[in-house]
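just leaving the lab so this will be short. below you get a single protein, a line of residues and a line of whole numbers that encode the local backbone shape. id like you to explain what the token line says about the fold, in plain words if possible. thanks a lot i owe you, the record is right below:

…
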Amino acid sequence: MHNITRWSVSSTGGVLESLGYKEGYRVDVDIPEGTWAEALSFHDVLIFNTGHWWWAPSKFNPVKSPMLFFEKGLPVMPPIPPAVGLDMVLKHMTSFVERRMKPTAILFFRTQSPRHFEGGDWDQGGSCQRIHPLSPQEVGKLFSVDNNGTNVETRLVNQHLYKALDSSVFNVLDITRMSEFRADAHPSTAGGKKHDDCMHWCLPGVTDTWNDLFVAHLDNIQGRN
């Protein structure tokens, strides 16, 4: 969504070094990633989404490789957790898009695609061996924010998305709820990886329904206009 680069200790020192940070990932909350930033003035329909890594200690370990947020080229001080950084990124992103978009463009933000790891995360022996969709009770247990389970980031990120987009021109494309039931629709052991793939989706499948939902939303918006 925004510019992310590796960060490491500078030989000249700095405020982060003085706090004991040695390496991490620099996230510039006010600098959009160049690929999509250049597309805003060209496309008539734009669909945005964000990644799974806001709550991903296996990649952004809060001690060994934390996300370090920068604004206007300087570290945000005191250092902030990913949840606060996400809010800052979304604030800058929506403002930037609304300034640069075509006046007639239609904007969507797609909600999170759920993962279905059970028994641990992808690097902890987690698996997805289901052959039938989940029941409503099973969905509630697997994704409950109160339970703080392996797949909780889906709903946590969505909470931040809805808050940030509430007063924006974005249309929310909610694919999360319908997809939460489909624990049976991932490649699992057929993905050719050393671990179960419980994040990506088999094709054809769930993502085709996302496209149908998108087209229905788009037709509805264009019909109103």
The first strand starts at residue 2 and ends at 8. The chain has a mean pLDDT of 90.
